[in-house]
Amino acid sequence: MFKRTWLFGPVLVGMLFQAGSARAGEAIEVRFGSGSKGGGFDAMVRALAEAVRGEGRVTVVPETTKGSCENVHKLLSGELDVALVQYDVAAEAYKAGQADAGAGGGATPKGGWMCKLSPEEADKAELQVVAAVTDAAVHVLVRRPVRLDDFTDIGREALFMGKDGSGSYETAKVILGAAGHTAESLPLFMGSAQEALVAMSRREVLTMLRTTELGHAEIRDVLASGLATLNPLPEAVLNRLIDGYPYYRICPIETGTYPGLEFSLPTVCVSSVVLMATPRERLADEAFLADRRLAVEAMIHGLRKLERDEQYAGLGVNVEWRGFAEREPIPLHPVAEIHETSERRTAWLQAGASAAALGLALYLIRRALRRRRVPGAGLESQLSNPLVPFAAFACVVTLSTFIVWSLEHDSNARLRTLNDSFWEMNTFATGNFTTDTLKTPTARLVGAAATILGLGLLAWFTATLTNIFAQEQTRLWRRLKHHLVVLNFREDMLPLIRLLRSPGPTRTRALHVVVSDALPRRVRLQLARVKALTIHHSNPEVPEDLAGLRLPRAARVIVLGDGDAGGEGYDPLRIARAVHQACARDPVGGGQRARTLGVAATSVEIARTAPALPVTLVETSDAEREEVFSPFAGWLVPVDCQALAHRWLVMACRDRAFAELFNRVVAFADDNAEVYTAPAPTWLIGQPWRKVRRALLEVQGRGGAVPLGLYRAADPGGKVPAGGSSHAELRRRLIVNPRPDEAVAPGDLIVALCEDEADLVRIVAESRKTAPAPG
Amino acid sequence: MVSTAKGAGGLTGGGARADARAGVTDRGDTAAAAEELATAPAGPSRPRWVVIHWTPEALGLVRAIAAAEPRPALTLIGPAPAEAVAPALASLPEGHVERYWQGSASGGVEALARFFADTADLPAADAIVVLPLRGHGETDAFSRLVCTAIQRACKGGPPHVVVAVEDPEATHEFEGLGVATIFYPGFLRAALLAHACVDLGAFRFMLALLSGRLRAETWPVPPELRARTFREACLEIEVDRCGRPVTLIGLFAPGEGAEPAMLLSPAPGRPLRDASALLVLTGEAE
Fold this sequence. Notes:
Chain A: Keywords: Membrane, Signal, Transmembrane, Transmembrane helix. The structure holds two protein chains of two kinds. Chain A is α/β, with parallel strands linked by helices. In chain A, about 40% of the residues lie in helices and about 15% in strands. Chain A has five domains: about 1-100 and about 110-130 and about 275-340, Periplasmic binding protein-like II (D-Maltodextrin-Binding Protein, domain 2, 3-Layer(aba) Sandwich), CATH 3.40.190; about 130-270, Periplasmic binding protein-like II (D-Maltodextrin-Binding Protein, domain 2), CATH 3.40.190.10; about 380-470, Helix Hairpins (Orthogonal Bundle), CATH 1.10.287.70; about 475-645, 3-Layer(aba) Sandwich (Rossmann fold); about 675-770, Alpha-Beta Plaits (2-Layer Sandwich). Chain A contains 25 helices and 19 strands. In chain A, the strands form three sheets. In chain A, strands 1, 2, 3, 4, 5, 6, 7, 8 and 9 form a nine-stranded mixed beta sheet that branches. In chain A, strands 12-11-10-13-14-15 form a six-stranded parallel beta sheet, with helices on both faces. In chain A, α16 links the parallel β10 (about 485-490) and β11 (about 510-515). In chain A, α2 (about 40-50) packs across α10, α6 (about 165-180) crosses α9 and α14 (about 420-430) crosses α15 (about 440-470). Chain B is α/β, with parallel strands linked by helices. Chain B folds into two domains: about 40-190, NAD(P)-binding Rossmann-like Domain (Rossmann fold), CATH 3.40.50.720; about 215-285, Alpha-Beta Plaits, CATH 3.30.70.1450. Chain B has nine helices and eleven strands. In chain B, strands 1-7-6-5-2-3-4 form a seven-stranded mixed beta sheet, sandwiched between helices.
């Protein structure tokens, strides 16, 4: 109700200030031309008269006519005020009125306009469209089993085109004209549609051209009876028709419109409009025009009622102002223009509000991603993401599809549907288009833009993919969960990378390596060739630089020393602190309960805000005593590699088999056994080691596992200690060569020599068959 | 990390395994053979070890050697004059180092060989460690010259020589020089950290091996196990003579060139009939 008031407001206010409003109070009678009695036009006009009745002083008086042609003639002669007219007929009348009636002199033969209109007759009144109300499509019905690919032979048998004087007849005439025929040269069946069907059943009529609304019951019955089939309008005819008579629009009869119709058939549609004629001599009569405006307002109100009301749903009224034909030369009535403007403004406001809401949502998502420091959220990182050009390509194709379709679907037989338009725009965007696809300059401009943008985006997409395949690394595969992080990488640790990528459990884990600017370029190039390895150029002593590594989710963090840099490189202790702070700030590591910066912190507060930390291995040297790292003992393991190397030399000198044994145990070779652990299954819990060992050894299979002992939780079956899983992991105790009566405790891991981890897991699982019964 | 170079005279790291095979054949007493042939160095109660190319940066190695049981009598040979290293050596407890000699290959291999034979008495050493000599050109080339000199000095057969190299690609250059083991410390670092990434339990196992708390001993094959499989041997061998739990982890069997090869965790059904010795893990990890 509010909407209606808002729409009518400006109109009514304008009318109050009209001079013509002086006649307020008198009834305004509108002579409304419909069509033949009992037809669609007649029913609609009678319903409109009913809808308008009681609303103001406007009365619609229906007048029965023979159809569009008679309506137009009567409008021009002033016998009717308003009428329902097929738009092609109305447009021809308007064009005839625009023509110079005196051109060529009175001796020049005239004729050829639809409905035998003459320019002199058409010039008697000014025509204006109130609204387009219904739509009809041309149906080409052809007697079974004949199918017409073109209209060359359409005249070999009788043809039905409708009643002379109806819009349908005039439409059929111009269609046949587009096929190179004249109505006079064809064997026309003169009679009603029903009679034509009977004649068709007697094989006397081959073709029927009927202009009716889609899904018309009569057509449905004919198709269902098997008497005739629907044929498409040939593409050449369509194009010629639209070029010569752009008052139609190309529209398909879609699949499912009629039972058994399995393909979309191209044809033309034409709308019926409420046409108002104003005699030329009354164009300056303001009172008359004011009454007309009131009448138009009332009729629009009534048409809206017919459109919305379920009671009138059968009439199929759909009020439109524009866009119902390829070209619409007849101007809208000023009242209708006001309605159109306000509706367009509303639509733009809604679109603007939707765009603003979308923009706001995108902004909030982007802000949330940036706050959570989700890697890859930045613009720079998206440049190497192939999904970005792919998404942009999809956007270009989608947008151009809609634009081109809306521009040409009424006039271009090749762009009848969105599907057609989508396919054509794909060919444009990939540079495979044909030159005669698009017709209008605007659509061609859009097509050219789509081609340029599409080819550019495809080049970008190809480049990113090439980059991925060349480097074997991509952000898509830079997993940041259970990943391995190496901080402060240096050249002599390349064997570490090789080992982590050799056959073994770490081979599939994402590897993130933080390198300093001092690392030689050749080493970086070597690293860049390693699969699933991401190089980060950042300062490992700065927690903010480590934020993107999502350290709390990492499986392991390795902090390397500065090697031979002599203290000029990054310090492992400072890196360890940075790891701690980076985890404290990470949402996963406990960022929500991060301690605020202050001049002091209590031990309680420090314990409360302890973040979840990954197990971190730090390479230390003689210069850094292990005690330096003792505050981090819960999650950090200092590894003095130099001291271990010295011990290795001592062991190699003392024990001659040591070197070979150690070498075999540490090498991830295919034919070699390494030490792995696997969780003890429930059926082994509580069993003495002797029985567990026997059960594992007795598992049959290709390879075996040699059980070495247990890796025991500090608190078997207890809760995870404060500080997270890394604390629990480092508090475990390794028991090799357990006593034969040592019972396996809950949470114990079985330590064994095995060819690979999967084998050990399998053997442990299969030990159920060989395990002793509980108790 | 390690490679075993075979010397011209066949005196390589496989010597201990040959001894083990002989022990089984002669005595057939598993426990006694284990005690006798456990891969501790043979010879006098206090073995004599020599470290070549020693510099004060390797003080940690001296401490590590001094911690070995039994503590070896240690001779150091380095490029620096004795006065230059005296302060560093003085920081060590009494008895850690028996002797320091200045010597390097800069005077030629022949001269160094004579020095090794006549002065440093290398032929009498049980084990020799050759460290990388930094700052004198190509590091591993110097070590190779030293190994040549050792081979010439110890004509009857060099002692157990362990060489630490900087470049793993230089390993093959030591072939034929009588070097038992070539060690690449860079790989040790990488391997330890890599295993720590896989499994902390495995990492701790390696630390236990390095610390000597866990030891791999070579035991003879008991006659009663000869006709049985590795799985059965594993089930049979549970404790040593003192009743301490042990684990059978592998065996030695004839490999290429009749040299016994170490088989770690072989297939459970592998028969022991051709095994020359068993590899047994002893000790406690923590």
